[in-house]
Write a structure and sequence with these properties.
There is one protein chain. The protein is built from eight helices and nine strands. It has about 300 residues and is α+β, with helices and mostly antiparallel strands. The chain folds into two domains: about 200 residues, no CATH class; about 100 residues, no CATH class. It has a three-stranded antiparallel beta sheet, covered by helices on one side. The chain has a two-stranded antiparallel ribbon with strand order 2-3. A two-stranded parallel ribbon has the order 6-9. Helix 2 runs antiparallel to helix 3, helix 2 packs across helix 5 and helix 5 packs across helix 7. Bound molecules: zinc ion (2 copies). The site of one zinc ion has 8 residues, from strand 3 and helix 1.
Length: about 300
């Protein structure tokens, strides 16, 4: 699951987080007018919009009907930057929850977990044993955003007419449970996002890349939450290095860790790689550094 940061929305595709460039054409979503999408993500959005069946497999980062509605609702509300980003995350979660509700009526696939993947990330309510989670700041944020979230899901429901269970109209409580989430559940989701999301750094311009510039501060273009990689702990002495592909580095032969063409199917923008930088004995914990290795660093690390 990816989300573009507020400061990069004018230059970054809200679907795949690729930066607008000569080879990456972007234009605004025609429906909400609030996000920039690349050609690929426009096509994915068209597919998602055309779906009248929630069982349809959907690219996880597609700008769907619910997310588009959320952008329009969020744009008209007076929200702080932080709340705007939290709101978009909760809208994406609400859509996954809705998909789960719809799938429960049909045939759930083992490998198609969506909402459960996010919900199973740490922290859990019983972490630390003492009812520490969800902490008050997340509860406050979930409380502030609840009416907007309810309105977004309600409007999306009316628009597409598929957020129904057996065609029956739902009570407000059932609608909340199945689609919007309770305040407590959404507070927990915010806690999981704050604990597990990776910052996706802005691309460095080609002429700014410097082999010795290992720790240069760059702005964060967005965040990404991964089903598996988000479970890897950070360590001061990491044994894996993290590389991402939002700028198509895996397809760039000048990069040390570019892919052979036979692996091109694993070169989606959101593909993430963890490469061992040390001998990892069987049973040892995999640990990564907090900071991402990008751009020229992929060359610098090629021993
Ligand atoms: Zn895109
Ligand atoms: Zn839109």
């Amino acid at each position: 699951m990816t989300g573009v940061s507020e400061s990069h929305r004018a230059t970054t595709c809200a679907g795949c987080l690729r930066r607008a460039a000569r080879c990456v054409r972007t234009r605004a979503c025609e429906r909400c007018g609030e996000v920039l999408l690349c050609d690929d993500c426009h096509r994915a959005a068209e597919l998602a919009f055309g779906a009248d069946d929630a069982r349809l497999a959907m690219a996880p980062n597609a700008h769907t009907r619910v997310k588009c509605r959320g952008e329009a609702v969020g744009a008209s509300a007076a929200l702080s930057t932080g709340d705007r980003e939290r709101f978009r995350f909760l809208v994406a979660c609400a859509e996954l929850r809705a998909m789960k509700t719809m799938r429960a009526e049909t045939q759930a696939r083992e490998d198609d977990r969506g909402f459960d993947d996010v919900a199973s990330l740490c922290p859990r309510e019983d972490d630390d044993g003492g009812g520490r989670w969800p902490i008050a700041s997340h509860v406050d944020a979930a409380t502030r955003l609840h009416p907007l979230l309810f309105a977004t899901m309600h409007d999306a429901d009316i628009e597409r007419g598929v957020l129904k269970v057996n065609g029956a109209s739902l009570s407000s409580d059932d609608f909340e449970r199945m689609y919007v989430g309770t305040i407590r559940e959404n507070a927990m989701l915010l806690a999981k996002e704050s604990k597990n999301a990776f910052g996706v750094m802005a691309a460095a311009a080609a002429d700014e890349r410097d082999e010795n510039d290992f720790g240069a501060a760059r702005s964060v273009r967005g965040g990404a939450l991964y089903r598996d990689a988000s479970r890897v702990n950070h360590g001061c002495f990491p044994n894996v290095a993290r590389f991402d592909n939002f700028d198509d580095d895996f397809q760039d032969p000048s990069k040390a860790f570019s892919s052979p063409s036979s692996l091109s199917a694993l070169c989606e923008p959101s593909t993430l790689r963890l490469l061992a930088i040390d001998v990892i004995p069987a049973g040892a914990e995999v640990l990564m550094r907090c900071v991402l290795y990008t751009g020229s660093h992929t060359t610098a690390l090629a021993w």
